[in-house]
Amino acid sequence: MPRIRNNPNLNVCPDYAADVFENIRVQLVNENTMEAQAMQLLRNIWEANNNAVKLLWQQQVDEDREQQEHRERLDEDEQERLNQEKIDEEEAASKEEKKKNKHKYLPILGTGIPNKPSITPYEANTKKTIDDDAMILSMLADGLTGWVSSTSTRNAHSVVNDENLPFEEFCQACPHFLTVIEEADWPQDRVQMMARFWMNIQVHKYRSLRDPIAHKTLLTYQSEQRKRWHIAAKSSVGLYDISKDNEKVLQDTREKVYWEEHNKRDNACDYKVSI
């Protein structure tokens, strides 16, 4: 059956008293039918036909609605299937990631930075090689300082070590670091731990001292401990809480920085004398 294009409920009965219908009225008028009766007969016939079309229209509307609801159910079922498929894929990827990188999802221990961390062959070379997952401060193309992954700078010609940065630039970089590791889907306990680690460094009593050795001590301490934490994460040492400051290690670091700077000055003086 052809589709009905127009809603018959909106149709208006023609005015059969108009001149355009005169020929039809004449054919209906006879000795038993007056003209007024002929016009009423025409109106009755039109209404009967229109009512029949209304029934067909309603049937068409009902069928269209049922088909639309059926399509929507199919679309919903398909979307639900796709959503579940995506969830299953994400869960499978998450399980594979946790299986592949177990150290990233191990619980953080209640212990803090150890006084004497275990030295491994890998750790002995941390000044030249850093764990691929580690983030380091680097001078970007626009001249600003930012956190980047160690692998991205592996072939870089110049990387500014943390301890050689102005303390203000280091403080500005810390929020960017947290943003980067969150975007890298670090577990929240790691993100919160690193946030506490940076905060403790920035509010440490050494920060208020005018001694540049004190400032460099903090930068050296955080750089070394961050690298060692990444190493410990993949070793039998386990994930200790790096945010818990170790004043003994910090004091040892200060002494080391002092003598390094002292030796640099001595070497510079010897060089000038030799010239």
How would you describe the overall organization of this protein?
The chain is mostly helical and 275 residues long. Helices cover 58% and strands 4% of the residues. It contains 7 helices and 2 strands. It has a two-stranded antiparallel sheet. A hairpin with a 5-residue loop joins strand 1 (135-139) and strand 2 (145-149). The protein is rod-shaped.
List its salient traits.
7 helices, mainly alpha, 275 residues, two-stranded antiparallel ribbon
Give a short overview.
Helices cover 58% and strands 4% of the residues. The protein starts with 21 loop residues before the first helix and ends with a helix. The protein is mostly helical and 275 residues long.
What is the topological layout?
Blueprint: H1 22-28, H2 35-100, H3 121-124, E1 135-139, E2 145-149, H4 167-183, H5 188-202, H6 212-233, H7 247-274
Antiparallel strand pairs: 1-2
Helix pairs in contact: 4-5, 6-7
Contiguous helical run count? 7
Q: For the report, how would you describe the main beta sheet?
A: 2 strands, antiparallel
Strand order in space, largest sheet: 1-2
Share of residues in strands: under 5%
